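Note to self: user wants both folds in one dump. Writing first protein now.
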Amino acid sequence: MTELKVEADAAEVGFDADRLGRIDSHFRRYVDDGRLAGWTIVVARKGRIAHLSHHGSRDLEAGLPVEADTLWRIYSMTKPITSVAALMLYERGALELTDPVSRYIPSFAGLRVYKAGSALNPATVPVTEPVRVWHLLTHTAGLTYGFHHVHPVDEMYRIKGFEFGGPRGMDLAATCDAWATLPLLFQPGTEWNYSVATDVLGRVVEVAAGQSLDEFFAEHIFTPLGMTETAFSVAEGDLDRLAALYVPKPGGGLLRNTSLAEAITRPPSMLSGGGGLVSTAHDYHRFTQMLAGGGELDGERLLGPRTVRYMTRNHLPGGADLERFGRPIFAESSFAGVGFGLGFSVVVDPLAGKALTSAGEYAWGGMASTAFFVDPAEEVSAMFFTQLMPSSTYPVRSQLRALVHQALVD
């Protein structure tokens, strides 16, 4: 594995070293008082790492520290990778953003939309607009997640076995066909709801490319970028490097989450483009730097710069933010002042969001509290890796953003 290392003195790239140090002193307290097991933080500017730190344990019970080669379940930080795959195919003419999803997944023809009633006896109406590829990229398709526990359709997902993951042995094609039997929450394009849309997009990638999702990722994204340790499962010999998952213990401290531990040790039957990958800080840094570099890194170009700029604009109708257009439930982003692009949250108004950042910052995170952001205006990127579920437990992301930006002094 290629090691991450600090590549620039803080002052060289416009940071105050002492103020950068506040990042570590702040997040050490999360470990020292038992809120987090451990973490890795990476901050870069102008393509060079200015801050890299680790603290705490990747496995509390085994007494193993977080190290540079620790493997992290990145969950929904898989979504931007799947979105990049789809836009790579768009650039090649293999799909159109306006294509009906039924062109690739025939079961998505003739979907129904929830109107009223219970999960066991819903009233539905026909779609007035087909679900299109851009609806999947923007989470405006009307799909949902079983773990939301908000709407009767969420319950219908759980009844079918889709809360976290899905029924054992079901592959991605069969999973998408199962979702197609369930009603949408709303007419496509009329609202935003965090959902399995990116998993469906992964199936579109498979059909459009004529390759399984893991093969497409490996050939067209991971190998060109040198992301040698990002995959849908962890080899037996690398399990000691995998960070353990934790949940908050009532009254303080952490409980190990063993319910999802087994799934990562074998290649999954369902390749989840919405949340299935394991990665390292090194590998995901390579991915974020490709984005920050306008689609290119070290001579390997995955996307054109105009495509990256297009993906990271707010695509919600009328320039709306998630506060106005989204359903106010769990997501890997705040809602006020934040829109959504093609696979990323996008800051449209830092003042409305009460966030120390720039308009145009794009970001996402994962269910186990991992996160990244790229601020093109300041040429800054940052990543935070830990393994605490759910991701909304502590304001780690907003604090990371503020701590990185307060250290900029040029």
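First done. Writing the second protein, which came from a different request thread.
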Amino acid sequence: MTYNTIKNVLPFFKFIGKYSNVREVTSGNVNNTFVLEYEDHQRKNYYTLQHINTYVFKNPHEVMSNISSVTNHLRNALIRTSGSAERRVLELIHTIDGKNLFEDEDGDIWRAYVYIDGASALDITNSPQEMEEVGRGFGNFQKLLHDFPAQDLFCPIPNFHHSLKRFFAFVHALDQDKAGRVKDIEEEIEFMFENRRMLGSIVKMLDNGIIPYRVTHNDTKSNNVLLDNETGKAICVIDLDTVMPGSVLYDYGDAIRFGASTAAEDEEDISKISLDMEKVKAFTKGFIEETNGFLTNEELLNLPLGIKVLTCELAIRFLTDYIDGDVYFKVNSPDHNLIRARAQIALLNDIVRREKELQEMTERYIARAAAKNN
């Protein structure tokens, strides 16, 4: 059945060898992903084939232009600095007519990469050591792209982290009250209004030139860094669909928000929700050691702000969708988005309680990294 889904697409890509097998990867939330096996004499070649979700990514050609530009830059930087880029950057497989995507007769869009074998993507890090490697992976990603002109990239999801516009959308949803739910969430509404100034702080810093625009990943979950199965070291950042101009504070903040929470994003018992400070420290150590030397002082010192803003931003997105009647996020119950919003609010409250600790930790790692360079 899986083969029937893809059989008419395979001949249009420059795969080496003869097709022998396929398995579908079901862990992704956006694109449909398949791992292909091809036999080339005594060797087996593996490829990743993806069907791009054009409902989410309405301009797939722009997405692929970004990915092609960024991966080329990463490859050249890796070869220049370490002599090899093998297994350390995504490698696109072009179509037989030299394009980086294929549009079938139904208008569906497909792309392919060389599959990176012998590596794992962790949905949850099980130790500070794994979290540190995730931090190093995303930090190295920033380092290799620090001289890439971010303004040359398209924005596949406009205003994705424009928190002020997220707040305006929230206010508009309140006025519309499409699902008749506003009356039941007075406490959550008040919380968002109390935090609106903080929510818009990174956008204002970018607009005022206090911090620079950089190439940002914008989906810095732990499962978007491949760790080598033998060494446990970070080798490659994957899932580059949302690469676009932004702030490094977005990537750092979202990685901590997701990877260092003690509970799931939809945990109903808010007493279980807090920051795992050992994971925070581990990620921060790896991230700062990799980015030391090119991030500005303003960026480094405001890393903890990124955690607050990104947690609040997701809370307001969940709450807005709840008010609108659950039109964006998939839900398992009528209150699922409200539960998610409350979970992020609980996490944000813990972040605020630890604000001094987070700032002191950040400054300590900044000082240590600077001392290593002297």
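Dump finished. Worth passing along: Strands lie at 18-25, 32-40, 43-52, 102-103, 109-114, 119-120, 214-216, 225-228, 234-237, 244-246.
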